[in-house]
UniProtKB/TrEMBL annotation:
Catalytic activity field: 2-dehydro-3-deoxy-6-phospho-D-gluconate = D-glyceraldehyde 3-phosphate + pyruvate
CDD domains: KDPG_aldolase
Alphabetically ordered keywords of this record: Carbohydrate metabolism, Lyase, Schiff base
Protein name: 2-dehydro-3-deoxy-phosphogluconate aldolase
InterPro entries with a match to the protein in the record: Aldlse_KDPG_KHG, Aldolase_TIM, KDPG/KHG_AS_1, KDPG/KHG_AS_2
Species annotation: Flavonifractor hominis
EC number in record: 4.1.2.14
Pathway: Carbohydrate acid metabolism; 2-dehydro-3-deoxy-D-gluconate degradation; D-glyceraldehyde 3-phosphate and pyruvate from 2-dehydro-3-deoxy-D-gluconate: step 2/2
Subunit structure: Homotrimer.
Amino acid sequence: MNEILQRVYQIGIVPVIAIDDAEKAVPLAKALVAGGLPAAEVTFRTAAGEEAIRRIATEVPEMLVGAGTVLTKEQADRAIAAGSQFIVSPGFNPEITRYVLDKGVPMMPGTATPGEMEQAMSMGLDVVKFFPAEQNGGVAKLKAVAGPYANLRWMPTGGVNTKNMMDYLGFDKIIACGGTWMVKKDLIEGEKWDEITAICKEAVKTMLGFSLHHVGINCANEAESEKTAKAVCAIFGFDYKPGNSSNFAGGIVECTKTPYMGTNGHIAIGTHNVDRAIYHLGLQGVEFDESTRKTDAKGKTKAIYVKGEFGGFAIHLVQK
């Protein structure tokens, strides 16, 4: 996948901004970054869009900024010159799509039908916008049409919000969701930057969905592992589940047959998407032990350990 689109996937949520005053672009971008969403699709629906992109690209370089509602070659040229790292359109125009691609800039044209999706694929695209998402059948439609399009992924935009966001992001063909709920006009005009940051943080929290998955206890050998797991089962009525390298008390307590990460053991934190969790925790300075990364057949990370110990325990992320 293109490097820019890979970042879109890792970020997971792309705020879609219609801004009327370019003076507000930089503080808005900084509010989004502080909230854990360092990405924006700034639409060309307003006269300030181009200048807003230019200011964000110049003054907030950590922000991944793209242009939306690009309908003409002239708009595409202006957006790219202003610093847009990707281009988005509401519909599929083959001429404009090819024009942007020929300039070496990632393009996500809007699609609503299998015919449009196939035309985009014929141009070498593997990521397209699905717009307007909810009005066009939502994630149910995407699941219905996904079968023949094994390599195609979507960024649904239009009607996506905190209530239905995970319906989309829970489908592995979704690269990210575009939305406006954290950058509504009244929030921008009122310069409510702290509120925008708070909404973004809540969206990221929902997207990652961290929760305790299980606790691992380091045991010296197989006999100690079995004894410990069965003792926990006897107390709490859990089912005993023997395994190759560990024995389990239900799905909550893992007793390793040989000591592994952590002096005492490990704490497994479940998340909706390990790759996105790695990216977002990385923004906070969290480091990971790459030697422990486990991936599935599609290359998605299933588990990875955080570097260091916490009270004698290692911590690792696992896919829910």
